[in-house]
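Crash report, auto-generated. Payload:
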Amino acid sequence: MNLKEFAKEIRVTTLKQLAVPGFGHVGGAMSIVETLAVLFGETMRIDPSNPQWSERDKLILSKGHAGPALYSTLALKGYFPMEMLTELNKFGGRLPSHVDRSKTPGVDMTAGSLGQGLSVACGVALGDRMSGRACHTYCIVGDGELDEGQNWEAMMFAAHYKLSNLTLLVDNNKVQLDGYTDDVMKLGDLAAKLTAFGWKTLTADGHDVDAIRAALAERSAECPSAIILDTIKGKGANFAEAAVPNNHHMTFTAEQIEAAIQEVA
Amino acid sequence: MTLEKSPILMRDALCNTLIEAAERDERIIALDADLVGSSGLKPFFKRFPERAVNCGIAEANMIGVACGLSLTGKIPFAHSFGPFASRRVCDQIFISAAYAKLNIRVIGSDPGVTAAYNGGTHMPFEDMGVLRSIPGITLMEPADPTALAAITKQLAGDEHYGVYYLRMSRKDAIAVYGEGERFEIGKAKILRAGGDVAVFASGIMVAEALRAADELAARGIQATVVDMFTWKPVDTELICRLAAKVKLFITAENHNIYGGLGNAIAEVTAANCPIPIKFVGVKDRFGQVGKQNELQAEYGLTADEIVKAAMR
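Recovered output after restart:
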């Protein structure tokens, strides 16, 4: 699979999806597009026809508000029909603003109250290891989300239990709802912190599929690995990129979406 | 009725039952937050080190890990002291467990005054109240080791899926049940029948209610005593049946009366079968250090208080 093309498809599909309600978490959805393209296009062992396959690799999207990007990816992979993408944020629909495992085929965990996903990912990695399954667990968190202390409990836990079957992907877009993370709550030297917590820590350009793939290849077989992805909040949606740092949740017009799609294509 | 201590401690009943379950079923996992030495789960940790997970002093992460284990098909039992297994992890139980429709069991030990010398920081009069507004959660407080073991055994099987919170004293308990007694989660147990008042209790208050019933009988008042070991879902059918038989309800709980067992029963009666109710329990106060009997006297968690409530 051509991952660059897949990323483009995910981005365009996500913009079209967001155009239906005319509002949504466009910033944080756009920044994880290449990550999803690599995971679902190549890295993860999955079977879209059997979303509950116990031997599958799992993804915990802890920054649950990025759901639209994941929904596009799942639909493009065939987990559900493309037409279902019009259900985003519809009452009674199967695609809520924040991901929900009991509503959407292929969504492995419910998330939305930030800071909880990495703990769940630890439990999944541990449970699979206890069961002798050779599968891997991925967890995507936002950099702003790392303000939540529970992440740091989970980081200690993963290192202590040597969860080498766990990969943390930090969407380091440097912006949170109220502004730049450096202004709201400084993360400091995140790579050094993760390393000090006992993780193999890697960095990559989060919008370069080859760089993400290369970082994934460098993961440790002894301890949990983290990849800090240098990303841009709203990447590829020109109206959202222009609005940084105020693009966490936006309203937009059909014309803006159309113009953004033209630029991506 | 003579009441005697059970020969087995509550925590040993818990651990023995979990070990028996784990011997049969490799999905049973025990988690603790640096309280293995207190919870009584040490023999489990020794017997099944690969299925025992000490999470350190990090309860929020422990609940999340339990949820992750549930996603892989495990049946996790996560223990901490009551306040840290409830109010401290309320959002994790709400979102990662209940809202996500996962399958976990949370054990909160040292309910209310049984926290004794650990004092107000460790003395949950609010754990059940904090958790009761979580949709679909099941809340239980068994009275003795027989009840605890029977319920734990059920929770270790496939019959029950969801989020279960078990509030339990770790230490001595008055033996209320004989061996082989059967329990159905959500169905209360009538321990004694009497036509004047009905006393609803759970945990340590069951023995107090039985003592009170003896005292009331001596004064010519016949009391029904109910072990309401399930607080949610509450046994609506039994409550309405008894409301038609007696003149007064008394609820007795080792918990704040706001958000507690009395409220749960009053919600049922107010809507379906109105009857006067007296609430014996903690009257919106914090805990403090003391011997359990001193604290029971201080907070009015005694047979005497139940008798007084019936006489007034």
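Post-recovery validation: Residues 18 and 193 of chain A are 35 Å apart (CA to CA).
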